[in-house]
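ok so i was messing around last nite and threw this chain in just to see what happens. nothing serious, just curious
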Amino acid sequence: MKTNTKIDAPANEERRRFFEASAKYGFTAALMAGAGGVLMSADATAQTANEEAERKEAAEYTMTFATAYIIGVSRAYPIMQLDFKENIQNMTNGKIYVNLAPGKKLGAGGALAKKVQSGVIQVAQHSVSNFAPFAPEADLINMPYMCARNQEVVNLVTSDVWKSVVDPKINASGFKALWYTSTSARTFSVRHGMDPILEPEDLAGVKFRVPGSKMLQQFYRLLGANRTPVAWGETPSAIKQGVADALVPVLSGLYI
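result:
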């Protein structure tokens, strides 16, 4: 039986151009060219790269911003990487140049928080669950049913109590919380071939992937799950290999 394989030629060509630009001008310059929609033009890409090089050369400091998520997913994950870069560079009159490291280029989750703590990078985006081992007070946000709606998350982290009690604790741990993202609801997801988790009783004995959050680990222990701590960057392979059978990610995170 003859089958046809459909190849998205424009997308493949743009991908090839991105890797070429990355090798020639650097990762951040290639990202900016891609975001500006000029990758298909060698001259425009070169101009973008030159502008980035000039900004970096003129800056007094370089700030590296790392995340597990790729550029272009801000509708699902409001990380706003490009906006953050532009805002910092503009608001400091070019004194700070922001180097972007998306798509797990430098790691994910707690690994990024550790790099911030050790001074390897300056800014990282990660979940509060993965950040909790470094600043336990922030784990309050993971208390079940405390923030059932996105607006409740916003209300909590912008409240006077949070600013006067939690933020100072985070600062004392060597971090500064720049902003909190509010995303879609979490969902129980299971390994292919397993029965869905529909009732609390369905969690009994399930090898359940948990992050570093003590709050969530306690919650799933009380529900009878077999808690399996796995770093976020290692979770896909852990699920495939059967190290863990289920997890509770943000729904939109499954598609990024």
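not much to say yet. The CA atoms of residues 13 and 40 lie 8 Å apart.
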